[in-house]
User: What shape does this take?
Amino acid sequence: MSALLEIDDLAVDFVREGRVAARAVRGINLELATGEALGVVGETGCGKTVTGLSILRMLPATARTSGRIVFDGREVLALPEDELRDLRGRRISMVFQSPATSFNPVFPLGRQLQHVAERHLGIGRRASERLVVERLREVELPDPERTMRLYPHELSGGMLQRAMIAMAILCRPSLLIADEPTTALDVTLAEQILRLLRSLQREHGFAVFFISHDLDLVGDFCDRVAVLYAGRVVESGPAAVMLAEPRHPYTRALLSALPRRGRPGTPLEAVPGNVPTGLEEPTGCAFAPRCPLAEDRCTSAPPHLAPIGAGRSVACYRWEDA
Amino acid sequence: MSALLDVRGLVKEFPPRRRREPPVRAADGVDVALEPGQIYGLVGESGSGKTTVARCVLGLERPSGGSIVYDGLDLASRDRDVVRRARREMQLVFQQPAAALDPRMTLRQLVAEPLRTHKLARGAELAARVEQLVGEVGLSPALLDRYPHELSGGQCQRVVIARALSTGPRLLVLDEPTSALDVVVQAQILNLLLALRDERGLTFLLISHDLGVIGHLSDRIGVMYVGRLVEEGPSSDLLAAPRHPYTRALLGSRRGRGSASLDAAPPLLGETPPPWAAPAGCRFHPRCPLREQLGRPAICEQEQPSLTGSEHRAACHFQEQT
Assistant: This one.
């Protein structure tokens, strides 16, 4: 099966006053098949959100992007503005972390969704209203005819997140980029939203690019997982096996830091140090300074992401010892 | 053993949003008792009243009812010396470490400030105390002349903890101390807190929405829902055999239970009501799966259940039927 989305050697730098101020993504390769859910995991600053935004070319003007992103046979990074508009919102849509700040506060909710439908599908006001009501019903919002006349501040956080999902699936996209879609929600509500996303995905078969810092969450929701560290993929593979038997020491570190996995009242396994923020390219593996398994070769030449069988890849010399 | 902190029947009312409405009860009859050296975890979703309890304990809010007794001293006392002594022995750590630090002060000045304010040290002794505190929270003395913006989130939270420790407190109130941090940094901070408890014999009131964090650290747990404590008991008991249907739903919302768990029905429907719309009777009754199972007994919507049991208590009319 050919990939729906192919990210090839993507690199993103941010410049300030003519100089590179941050190197967010340093060469990422990812593939997403039709209908597949890929979890992209890592800590703050690992490049996961920047990667997600570059798929839609939504990065600020200070970003310098290189590499290739191919969506459904089209080169996204080389696409003219008008073709890009057709992609955004229609074929690829996005769900953000904070529903409260993702709507325009001065328009009723329904109008904002209708606008998207009218623009992308070229339909009139009546037809767009019918479509929006239908989608609001799909996301299980009560009384859609009434709800669509409400302003964003009149809806609870949970209702707004459902409305944002309704907007995202409005034009039946093939790819949904979800950036921490449940992080701002209370736990019992997050559960409802996750199940809603899952059932919509089952029904309509869209692929999901699921960005999260939470390995447990991604493990449950996604078919495959890619772990990012300092702008690179360090490990990827099928979710269940990879989380049960992580091969990269950083994936292991992320898992063993979860309080749920420790014995209550005893210290957690926490790797020392911080995520690197420097501009310079490390001579070896970026994780080596914090890695319990690091040896000489780890700091002299960077390990490349290489297949290890069963659909898994690891960028580590010592993956067999992990 | 007598409690270091004894909160009984704590009520905190805020003025209503509209005139002629009754006041809003953010906390409604909360009992919390902390033995010396204990970590007490208060868990709940937004609007549950957990932060209100913390603010009342710290004297940042004046309770509308009930009593707060610290080491035998009534905090409602008009004797200012009594209150001042109690206040000095309690310190707080909040969620946003960067926001709690003056951006124009260096780490050295930040840690010295409370020592100066309380006239606890000066001159060479002050410098030595600052270095000792900074070392105790695991920061390198090389960072002493840095400003908060030059530190990572985890380092900032260590500075906040060093400041809190500087006055030699016996009780620390920690309100979501790791919610803004990445998992590995969270694990580092949780380990630091456990070590400080053991070395200094501190007592913690830990507030969090994260059952993983609460379960890992706490000796005792209290679960709050819309201003009321619905369940309370020793951590191991409460997590292994929860008695309140809300606690069970919270535990059922933990992720990392496999892909199939997302295809089952969500553990709870609806959203947690805000305190000004608290339902009559048992506040949980409109969402309670147990009530549905029992054929909606009338008592649930008529009578507010009180906490019953000895060591492990729950506020549910039907807690025996599980």
Chain B has a mean pLDDT of 93. The longest strand of chain B covers residues 24-34. The domain at 5-89+169-280 of chain B is CATH 3.40.50.300 (Rossmann fold). Chain B touches chain A through 47 residues (CB under 8 Å).
